[in-house]
Amino acid sequence: MSRVDDLIANYARFVKLPWPTGLAPAQRVWMAVYSPEEERRLRLELPGFAAATKSAGYEWDLIDLTVEFETWIARHDYREQYFRSPNLIQPELAGFFDHVVASTREQLSSKTSDHTVVGVLGAGSLFGLGAHVKVSALIEHVQDATDGRLLVFFPGEVDGNNYRLLGAQDGWNYLATLITAQKGSTL
After folding, report:
1. pTM (2 decimals)?
2. How wide is the angle at C-alpha 69 spanned by C-alphas 75 and 49, nearest 5°?
């Protein structure tokens, strides 16, 4: 079995556990942490997460952030200037972050019920876009947009509650439920 298979097996055990009601939005976030080298395999095996969710009696949906930046910049009036001088885009990245938050919230509101797991794929595509664009901030801005569970696919590492996207030096503390590929473990 691969590490992704182990992650799916642990997720399958975890999603079958009873879902408490009345949780705060931050308590309904699950972080599926995996090695960045496993990104392609994880994407290939996404149907395993959907099958595990449905087998547990819940609905499954997916939001993919991978091409959000490309979509946003393609519509931007000054894209050609930014391509010529990329340093000019830094002040505009706050607008990109607002776009990602609005797009994700819209998708969540149209896809979810209190019996839905929504996977969020493509967190790694937000890496390196400046101080305005952080996965932690995105989660904080969208976690209340669903009554179900938000499963964030997180290519990186975790030490305690400190998450590091793509192994970056600076991480953040977050109190989501952690799901890893550790054999025989759900957490």
Report:
1. 0.89
2. 130
Residue found by looking up tokens 């392609």 in the block = 40
For 50, the token pair is: 């959907």
Q: How far apart are CA 169 and CA 128, in angstroms?
A: 12
pLDDT digits (tens, 9 = 90+) for 111-120: 778 899 999 9
Helix 135-142 with 93-111: angle, nearest 10 deg: 40
Of the chain, the end-to-end C-alpha distance in Å amounts to 18
CB 129 within 8 A of CB 69: yes
The residue ranges of every structural domain in the chain are 3-17+24-156
Contact at 8 Å (CB) between 86 and 29?
no
Mark out the alpha helices in the chain (DSSP H runs).
Answer: 3-15, 39-44, 46-55, 68-75, 79-84, 93-111, 135-142
Taking only the tens place, the pLDDT of each residue in 139-179 is: 889 999 988 999 999 888 887 777 766 666 555 556 678 88
